[in-house]
Every structure is written in structure tokens, then in C-alpha cells.
Write the C-alpha cells for this entry.
Amino acid sequence: MEAISKSLSLFDFQQLFPDDESCLKYLSDKKWKDGYSCHRCHKKKYCRSVKKYDRRCTACGYIESPKANTLFHHMKFSLQKAFYIVYLVSTNKRGIASTELSRKLGLRQKTCWLFKHKVMQAMASRKKYSLSNEVEVMTCELGVNRIVKDGIKIEKKKLAVLAHEKKSKGRGKTYGHKVDNLSAKELNVILNDHVDKSAHIKTNGWHGFAALQNKYPGLKTVICKKGKRPVVMTYRISCGLLHWIRGIHGHAELLQYYLDEYFFRLNRCDMEDGLFLHLLDRMIKHEPRTYYDIVNFTPKALFIDYS
Ligand SMILES: [Zn+2]
């Protein structure tokens, strides 16, 4: 049985989005809720175009559909099916594999894979929240990448750093960042992006953290005693993450996207007011992505302000 959000049941979803037109109207209402601005010349005046919900700039004649310049850009299948994928990805506690989406929706697995990865782009942290007070940081290994080069098999570990905020009441947030190696320069990225400088940071025994003590005075590297783990909560989270990656993705090829997806849901597991609509909103504000962008990690995530 699928775990679904408290706020929006499957029945509610079907009532809210019974067909493609209701989805297109929703995109139009949300995209231009603060007013229209031409994507090409930034003028504010528009008139209706041939297709319902399209807007035509009166200054330059540019016609823009509600899907254009969002993560729904150049989508080749039914918009209602796309909304259903967003619904399933956001409300299934453990996410959903592209093979399962393909079976449920009657779409090609590659089509589902690409659109699911577009959804995952909108799950990346916007770096608005800094972890503070008690923070645990640890390095972990999340799979192995096997490459054959000149007939020789090379195995490269997929490494990540996790940062978790400890709270006496309720659940603290956690973020994950893929790293190429465990040098201080790589480890610094997650601290810089997600941890407040005044936080008391406890790390596992990795010596690479010691070089960051000048920048983060509250950083403490705890040496592991036999049979004891210095960062218990983060260790438990890393075990859940590893189990999830093996179960859903089967490998750790595009690791940063998997980390973004996992922690997007984990950090919002108590969200009462609709994770699905929140994710749709993020997709509307996100710039378009192609297959090339996704597999090459380019360009950097960017949110568009339509107001
Ligand atoms: Zn224009």
C-alpha cells in the first residue's frame, strides 16, 4: 500500500486535476499569479493567442504557453500524466522507480526517467536555511562506480558528506552533498552551503575536518572509541539513505540528485499543507532542463522570478 500525504489523497488529486486543461489552467494561474512579464522583452502587456491560456506579448509578438520556460518545457506527453508523476514522486514515502512509473502510466521507461529527473531538479535545496546549534557532520560511502578504461576495470567510490541538525524536540533538517574526495576543500562545501558559522559541529573521526577548525571555531572532531559512534543520528540517516539508494535507484550514478530527492522528502515529512503542490510550485519557478543538462549537471540550478 502506498504511503500518501495527509493533505491530498488520490481522490483529491483526481478531483483537482481531472484532465489536461485543468492542469494547464493551474500552471497559467501559478506562473503569472504576480502579473505577466514577457520572457523575451520583459514588457508587461499581453493579449490572448490562438491556443487557450497562451499569452502573446503586444510589444514583440512572443507567444508563451504556461509550460514554456518551466520544468514542463518541451514535454511530449499528457500534462495530467506529468502532474500524476509529480504527485507520485512527492507523496510516496520512499519515492518511485521510473520502471514503476512506466508500468502505471503506459509511458516509455526512458520518458519516465527523464521527467522524473526533471522533478528531482526542483527538489534541490535552495540554501535558504542554515543548520545551527548542535550539528553532526559525517562522511559516508554510497556505492561504487565501475569504469573500464583501456581494458582495465577501475572502481571509484561514490562519496558524500551529510550534515544533520540535532533538536531536542521534533526532527532537525539534514542535507547531503556529493564529494569527489574527502579533502578539506570538498568537505567545506556542505559547511559553507548549509551550516551556520556559530554552530557546534561534531564530526566523525575523519582528519580532513581538522583543517576547517580555523573557519568554524565550534567544529570538534571526535575520535571513535571502539564500538561507539560519535555521530549517532547522522549514522542512522546514512544507513536509511544507503538502503533507499540500493532499493530505488540500484546504483549511485547521479548521486547528488538522489541526495536532493531523499532529503527533500525527509526534511518535509511533517509538512501538513501539501508537499505535492509545493513541488509543483517549485517546478513552475525552475528554469527548463534537457537530458544533456541533467546527465552533465549543467547549468546550475536557477529559479525564475516571473513577477
Ligand atoms: Zn515581448
